[in-house]
Amino acid sequence: MKKLFLIAGLLTSSVCTFAQHQIGSWNFQPKVGLNVATLTDTKDSDPRFGVAVGAEVEYQVNEFLSFSGGALYSMQGAKFDNTLGSSTIKVDYINVPIMANFYIAKGLAVKFGIQPGFNMLAKTTNKTDISVWGFNYKNKSDNEIEAESFDFSIPLGMSYEFNNFCIDARYNLGATKVFDGSDSKNGVFQLTLGYKIDL
């Protein structure tokens, strides 16, 4: 019987170390990272690489669960190559991820939630690079485009925390149309590095 209680105690103590922060505590996490963004239902497109930067606040409910919310500036869209050069659709947002984080091992969490987003930029950048008879012609132009002002996505991912540094990998699955009259939705793989500061 004593051995049984000892094993139960060891298991409990190991489980309690899954979360890195005390129960009932808050932390603030500035973070910066890389987006690999695509638009669904766009043929022959390549990802647009961009920046994600912002901050999140997290509340530790118990050893296994925390909730977080934040705001991130997120560069999204897609890129197209053609015989004359390339075109990039740039749709940037301020995203507000609201996440549930489930700790499954020490410092390791799986997470999912909801993410409303607010469009801040919508334009295409066209680059022309032509070489004719030894003459190189290069040109770059920006054109504003119409995009929906509101976006909604479902973020799914994992994070790992060590010494307050947190690596977060998530995929933001778009649920709303980016443009009126088009079925294209955002799809964004996001990798960020943050630092958690206890409040």
Concise synopsis of the structure shown:
The protein has one helix at residues 2-15; strands spanning 26-39, 46-60, 65-82, 85-95, 98-105, 108-132, 135-144, 150-162, 165-177, 185-195, 197-198.
Commentary on this structure:
The protein is mainly beta and 199 residues long. The protein is built from one helix and eleven strands. Strands 1, 2, 3, 4, 5, 6, 7, 8, 9, 10 and 11 form an eleven-stranded antiparallel beta sheet that branches. The longest helix has 14 residues, at 2-15. Mean pLDDT is 88; it is low at 4-16.
Overall geometric form: elongated
Work out the strand percent. over 45%
Report how far apart the termini are: 42 Å
User: How many strands appear in the DSSP assignment?
Assistant: 11
**Mean pLDDT, nearest integer?**
88
Instruction: Tell me the Rg in angstroms.
Output: 22 Å
Ranges where pLDDT stays below 50 over 5 or more residues in a row are 4-16
Q: Major beta sheet, specifics?
A: 11 strands, antiparallel
Tally the helices: what do you get? Answer: 1
The helical percent reads under 10%
Order of helices and strands: HEEEEEEEEEEE
Structural class determined from secondary elements: mainly beta
